[in-house]
């Protein structure tokens, strides 16, 4: 169940028998011709689709993350690492205080990965707490599917283009964009990143047939569900 569609009475009743929940992490950043909220949309939806048959609560996606390299693209919002770490820690503290003990973080933005040590520190400070950090798009089975469909896939390419992330009425380029060399992205500021990547796609075609992305999504949901219902001992 999505927390946004539940009341506190229902959550209290749930906690009488289960202590799992899902916290999606997203971002507000450029995704070329796709929504600026791609990472938040995808992390929350894959979490909700995975948790729905299990009845596990899914909290709203944290809509802002760590994306300083995209600050030359209007609409992007980036938090400082210290701010983000404290923010995630406060959320986890709140979940623990209200009765949750097993938290699956479903991360939708690679830039958020530096916050992982916060989960380790949190578990050390809270008896009985467990936290898993799941980068849904690069989990083994999901990434294997990406490679099978088209190995030239990256940020803002077809692998993030779903009916729920694309914007109506926007035309997409038809060609395959060559990969941007990642080593050149790491040694320049935001203006330099924009100059290097142009429209924001890191490489790949902009859209694939829905049959391909439906297959990818199904595997991602299943793999996320396995993380949630797997052995927590």
TrEMBL record:
Family: Belongs to the creatininase superfamily.
Source organism superkingdom: Bacteria
Gene Ontology BP term (one): riboflavin biosynthetic process
Protein name: Creatinine amidohydrolase
Names of required cofactors: Zn(2+)
UniProt keyword annotation of Hydrolase present: yes
Keyword terms, alphabetized: Hydrolase, Metal-binding, Zinc
């Amino acid at each position: 169940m999505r927390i946004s569609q539940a009341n506190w009475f229902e959550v209290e009743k749930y906690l009488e028998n289960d202590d799992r929940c899902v916290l999606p992490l997203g971002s507000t950043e450029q995704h070329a011709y796709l929504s600026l909220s791609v990472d938040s949309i995808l992390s929350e939806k894959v979490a909700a689709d995975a948790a729905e048959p299990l009845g596990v609560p899914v909290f709203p996606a944290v809509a802002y993350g760590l994306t300083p390299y995209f600050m030359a693209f209007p609409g992007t919002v980036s938090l400082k690492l210290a701010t983000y770490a404290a923010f995630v820690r406060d959320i986890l503290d709140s979940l623990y205080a209200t009765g949750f003990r097993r938290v699956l973080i479903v991360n939708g933005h690679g830039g958020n990965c530096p916050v992982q040590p916060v989960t380790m520190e949190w578990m050390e400070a809270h008896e009985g707490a467990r936290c898993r950090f799941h980068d849904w798009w690069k989990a083994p089975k999901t990434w294997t599917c990406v490679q099978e469909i088209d190995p030239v896939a990256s940020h803002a390419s077809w692998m993030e283009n779903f009916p729920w992330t694309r914007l109506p009425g926007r035309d997409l380029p038809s060609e395959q964009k060559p990969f941007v060399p990642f080593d050149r992205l790491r040694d320049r500021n935001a203006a330099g990143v924009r100059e290097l990547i142009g429209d924001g796609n890191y490489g790949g075609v902009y859209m694939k047939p829905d049959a391909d992305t439906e297959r990818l999504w199904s595997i991602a949901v299943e793999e996320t569900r396995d993380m949630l219902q797997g052995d927590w001992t």
